Amino acid sequence: MSKVIVSSLYNSDVFRMACRQFDKAADAINLPETIRDRTKYPRRCLAVALPIKREDGSITVFEGYRVQHNLSTGPSKGGIRFHQSVTIGEVAALAMWMSWKCSLVGLPYGGAKGGVICDPNQLSQSELEHLARRYMQEMVNFVGPHVDVPAPDVGTNEKIMGWMMDTYSNHVGHLSPAVVTGKPIAIGGSQGRREATGAGVAYLTRKYLEDMKIPLSKTTVAIQGFGNVGSEAALALASYGAKIIAISDYTGAYYNPKGIPLKKALSYVQYQRVLRDFDGGEPITNEELLELKCTVLVPAALERVITEKNAAQLKCRLLAEAANGPTTNAADRILEERGDIEVIPDVLCNAGGVIVSYFEWLQNLSNFYWDRSEVLEKLFAILDKAKDSVEAQKRKFKFSRRLAALTLGIQRVAEAKQSRGLFP
Ligand code: GLU
């Protein structure tokens, strides 16, 4: 019997949610007690203070984290989030999910996540650059191409990854593109990386709609979150023939039964940064968007938006989890009881991003670059294989699709730990 002295460090709703998911999955596959706690809890973390000189000459100290959940299956991998609601518990939960996601789709990586408590919309470009560089400077001894490889997440982008790669490279004394993925193409980024998460969400959505025998021409989609993932998923689904009837960001939601003009929405956010006052649809509330009658609901923003309060009211046929952890465990139970909504769980649905990050890392390490069609073809092949394995697991054990995906991911990490020995 293993015993863990659990610290209160990560204690938060979202970390407890990730832990409960693990416990349920571990019970479902009878994971031996001796391996449970060391598979479940994050291996290590770093918290840093980041003093930044502001445009007005004042100094602000931001707080940042990096949590490495597991390094047994390769360097740990996962994005860095810049958001005002970041907590170390949230970062730890996101790091856990990265472990199961990488393992589920067969990438040679462990899981990690980073975060800085800040509102990037309130920072100038130069303040943002200072913050990104200062964060990486503090992480130099904690990350690396064979240790832990960061990437973009909510609130970060290619530009920020480029600055971080530059800071790391300056410290080690040579160009080290493989330390970060999601970089601009000019400095070692991969073709297709920017759109990879959204493209993967759309590809899997199309595959599941095929299984459900729903034609794309009759498919309506509501997308919560219009950042990189939500907007790319919208574009790809529209290119397949689906109609995007609602989009939103934290400033507002917009509904248009004839179809949201996506190009207009994209150029709007490019100039205005946010969707506030967008006139391509009727303004509705975020809650109304989640409860719209539509074929596919795509939560593409933050965790815990589908809760016990709204799960019974959802009117979609398919829930495509583009965000990490959008559905609470209580909501998940309600959806399972209802049985009328298919769920593509986050660790499968949004894995396209980290899959193309893996391709970017491979291209950087081998200094040999692929074209876009090759990237997308390989991405879709991995997603097909992962989907098939999840469906087989679901059928074999009569699990929900989420439980099927999590048990596969967790099992592989636990097996790797066991195979490396030392412990019984
Ligand atoms: N932040 C993304 C995720 O949650 C991508 C991580 C990566 O590419 O390493 O999956």
Structure in words:
With 424 residues, the protein is of the alpha/beta class. The protein is 46% helix and 17% strand. The chain has 14 helices and twelve strands. A hairpin with a 2-residue loop joins β7 and β8. The longest helix has 26 residues. The chain starts with 12 loop residues before the first helix and ends in a 5-residue tail after the last helix. The chain binds glutamic acid. Glutamic acid (GLU) binds next to β3 and α12.
Main features:
Rossmann fold; alpha/beta; 424 residues; seven-stranded mixed β-sheet; 14 helices; five-stranded mixed β-sheet; 2 domains; binds glutamic acid; single chain
Query: Could you state the order of secondary-structure elements as H and E?
Result: HHEEEHEHEHHEHEEHEHEEHEHHHH
Ligands in the model, by name, code or SMILES, are: glutamic acid
What is the H level of CATH, i.e. the homologous superfamily of the largest domain? Leucine Dehydrogenase, chain A, domain 1
Walk across the major sheet and give the strand order. 9-8-7-6-10-11-12
Tell me the fraction of residues in β-strands, as a range: 15-25%
Mean pLDDT: 96
How many beta-strand segments?
Answer: 12
Number of helices: 14
Point out poorly predicted stretches.
none
CATH topology of the largest domain: the name is: Rossmann fold
Please state the oligomeric state of the protein chains shown: single chain
Largest sheet: 7 strands, mixed
Shape: globular
According to CATH, what is the class of the largest domain? Alpha Beta
